[in-house]
Amino acid sequence: MTIKQESQKKLKELGEKLLNEIKSGENPYLDIPIRSLSNVNFNVEKQVLEIGDSSSKRFFFNISHIRKFVQTMEVAALAKELIEVDKHLSLRQVFYALRKTLPGTNIDVVDEQKESNDAIEDLEVIAKLTREQLHVNASKNGAAAGKIIIEDKGDRINWGKLGSGGWAIPSNTENIKFKKIDAKFIIYMEKAAMWERLNEDKVWDKMNCVIIASQGQATRGIRRLLQRLNQEHNLPIYVLTDFDPWGFYIYSVLKFGSISLAHLSDKLAIPEAKFLGLTGEDIKKYKLEKQKIKFKKVDLKRLEQLKKYDWFENKKEWQKQFKLMKEAKGKVELDALVTRGISFVSETYLPEKIKNKDWIE
Amino acid sequence: MTIKQESQKKLKELGEKLLNEIKSGENPYLDIPIRSLSNVNFNVEKQVLEIGDSSSKRFFFNISHIRKFVQTMEVAALAKELIEVDKHLSLRQVFYALRKTLPGTNIDVVDEQKESNDAIEDLEVIAKLTREQLHVNASKNGAAAGKIIIEDKGDRINWGKLGSGGWAIPSNTENIKFKKIDAKFIIYMEKAAMWERLNEDKVWDKMNCVIIASQGQATRGIRRLLQRLNQEHNLPIYVLTDFDPWGFYIYSVLKFGSISLAHLSDKLAIPEAKFLGLTGEDIKKYKLEKQKIKFKKVDLKRLEQLKKYDWFENKKEWQKQFKLMKEAKGKVELDALVTRGISFVSETYLPEKIKNKDWIE
C-alpha cells in the first residue's frame, strides 16, 4: 500500500465509522487520545516519549463538543481533497481554507488559526496519520550538503554538487528516495553559520559524511530526514550544539521526541542519535574557559528543568554534564572554537571527537 | 582586478595612510562617514537611499576614541587574514575571534558582539568594502528554484532540477556565476510556505521564471542575488507580499534600500523592483473582504510612518494604497487566496497580474 492509499484508507474508515453511527441512530463521536503532559510517558525500553492510553470522547450532539467536532471533520474533508489532487497547504493556508461561513448561518468554521491547528493535531491522533500524510506542510528551513544522492519529484540531486548553498530541505521529506549513499555518518548542527563554516572547509568531503543544519530546533522535515537516514541506512547521527540548556534540549528533542509531538515519536525520534556538541570537559580541553557567557536566570531555570526530565534523570553522563554546567555558570558556544583557529572545528574538534568516540548518548 | 585584489588594495591603502601618519608624527585617525538617519538621504534621481557627506574623525591618541579605533584595526587585521586564506566567518564568530586580551593588559578587545558588529560596519564605510568583501558572512536563509543554471564553487547547479527543496541560498552570493538564463523574470516572496505552494504547482516551469523566498526581510545574500539578476541580466524582479505595512516595507527595502545599510545601496537596492503583492483593489477583485485580519495599534502606527517616508511621499499610487489600507482597517495575507482554490495563486493571480502589468513601482 502506498502512503497515499494508506492515508485514504484511514480517512475512509473514520468516515464510515461516523456514517454507521448516524445510520444506527447513535450520537456520532470521535475518540481523541489526550495530548497533554499527563498522558505522555517516557518508554524506557525504546528510549522515546510516547503518548499514553487516555482518551476522551467528543460527541456531535453535545453543545460544548460540536464546534471542535465540525472543525475536525472540515479538516478531514480538506485533507481528503488535498490527497486526491496531490497538493499541499501550510498551516496558515489551511486556516484560510477553513475560514468560511457555514451555510444558512453566520458562524465561521474557524475564527483563529489556533482552532485549525488544533483540529489538524486532533485528526493526526484520531486517524493515526501524520500532518505530512494529511498534506499539511510544516515549516521549511535548513540545508544539506555531502555524500548522498537523492531522488525527489523526479529530480536526481547530488548533495555534493551544490556549491556554497547546499540543498534547501523541504517541509516534507517523506517521499525522498535515497539513491546512493557514500556518507558514513551525518552531522546535524543548530546554526546555519556553523554549517557554512564546515561547508567552506569541505568537512563532508574530507570526512565522508553529510552536514545538515536548520536554525534552532530542527523542523519536522529535518527530523524525519535524519530519522530515515538512521533507520533505513544505519547512518549514525551526530548532533552538534552549544554547551547550554537550550542546545542540550535541541539534542533531547531529536533523540527522545518532544512532549507536544509524543504521538509522532515513531516517525520523528532518533533513539540512536549521539551528542557531539561541547561538553563540560571540552571547555578545559579546548581552552575555552575565557569564552564563557554568563547564564541569565532563565538559563539556570531551564537547566533545573532539564535535569529532572525522565529521559535524563537516570543517566549518569548527562547528570554529570548538568552539574558541570551549573558550576560553569555560563554557556560556551561552538562558535567560540574560532579562538583556536578559523578551521579548528573542522580540522581538530570534529575529527578528534569522532575518532575517540567522544560523544554522549 | 579581482574582488580579492580590490579588497586587499583598499585594506592596504588604509594601513599605509595610518603608517604615514605615524611616521610623520601625526595623530593617526580614521575618517568615518556618519551612518545615522541625519546623514541618510533619498536620491530622487537614482531612487535609492544614500549615505551623505558628513563624517567624523576618530583619533588614536584620544581617550574616548581609542577603544573603537583599536577594534576597527583588529577587524581589519582579521579581514586581511580571512581574505588571504580565502575563508569566511559569521558575525558571531568574528566576535569570538576578537574576544582576546590585549598583551600586557587585562583589557579585552571586545566584550560584546555589538562592539565587533559596529567595528565591521565602520570598516565597511571607511574602506568602502562590503562585509562580504571582508569575508564576514551575514545570515543564510531562503531557497531558489527555476530556469537558471549557475556555477558556484566549481559546481554547476540547475535550479530547475532540485525537487521539492530547491537550492539553499548562501549568505554570500557575490561569486555566483550565471551560466544559462532561460527565466524571463524573478518572483520574490516573503514566505517559505508560499514558495512551496508555487514550487509544487511548478509555476517557474509554466511561466518561465525563477521563484525565490526567504522568511520575512530578505537576507543580504538574497538582496544581492536579486540585484545582480536585475542589473547583469535585465530580469524584472516581482515582489510578492501581504497587504499590510510590514509586507510593503519588505518591498521598500528591496527596492530603495534601508536606512541602516544606506551606504550599501549600490550593492543591494533594486530601483527597478516591482510590487506584485496584494493591493487594496485586489481585495475586492479577488473577493477577499471576508479574509481581513484586523490591524492592531502597532500596525496602524507603522502605516503612518510608511506614508511619510521620502520615497513614498510623492508617489500617487503608493499614497492611494496607504489610504485604502487605512480604510480597510486590516491586513489581507497572500495565503488568503487559498479560499479561491488551492492553486488559485499559481493559475489565476500571478498569470493575470503579470499579463495585465498590474504592478506598482
What is the strand and helix layout of this fold?
The structure is a homodimer of 361-residue chains.
Chain A: H1 3-23, E1 29-33, E2 40-43, E3 48-51, E4 55-59, H2 66-85, E5 89-90, H3 91-98, H4 113-127, E6 136-137, E7 143-146, E8 148-152, E9 155-158, E10 167-168, E11 177-181, E12 185-189, H5 192-200, H6 203-206, E13 209-213, H7 220-233, E14 237-240, H8 245-256, H9 265-268, E15 274-275, H10 280-285, E16 293-294, H11 297-308, H12 310-313, H13 316-328, E17 330-331, H14 344-355
Parallel strand pairs in A: 5-6, 12-13, 12-14, 14-15
Antiparallel strand pairs in A: 1-4, 2-3, 7-10, 7-13, 8-9, 8-11, 16-17
Descriptive overview:
2 copies of one chain form a homodimer. In chain A, 45% of the residues are buried. Chain A folds into 2 domains: 3-137, Orthogonal Bundle (Arc Repressor Mutant, subunit A), CATH 1.10.10; 143-355, Dna Topoisomerase Vi A Subunit, Chain: A, domain 2 (3-Layer(aba) Sandwich), CATH 3.40.1360.10. Chain A is of the alpha/beta class and 361 residues long. Chain A is built from 14 helices and 17 strands. Chain A has helices at 3-23, 66-85, 91-98, 113-127, 192-200, 203-206, 220-233, 245-256, 265-268, 280-285, 297-308, 310-313, 316-328, 344-355; strands spanning 29-33, 40-43, 48-51, 55-59, 89-90, 136-137, 143-146, 148-152, 155-158, 167-168, 177-181, 185-189, 209-213, 237-240, 274-275, 293-294, 330-331. In chain A, helix 2 crosses helix 4, helix 3 packs across helix 4 and helix 11 (297-308) packs antiparallel against helix 13. The model of chain A has no long low-confidence stretch (mean pLDDT 96). In chain A, the strands form 6 sheets. A 6-stranded mixed β-sheet of chain A has the order 10-7-13-12-14-15, with helices on both faces. A 3-stranded antiparallel β-sheet of chain A has the order 9-8-11, with no helix packed on it. In chain A, strands 1-4 form a two-stranded antiparallel ribbon. In chain A, 43% of the residues lie in helices and 17% in strands. The two termini of chain A are 35 Å apart. At the A-B interface, helix 2, strand 5, helix 3, strand 8 and strand 9 of A face helix 2, strand 5, helix 3, strand 8 and strand 9 of B.
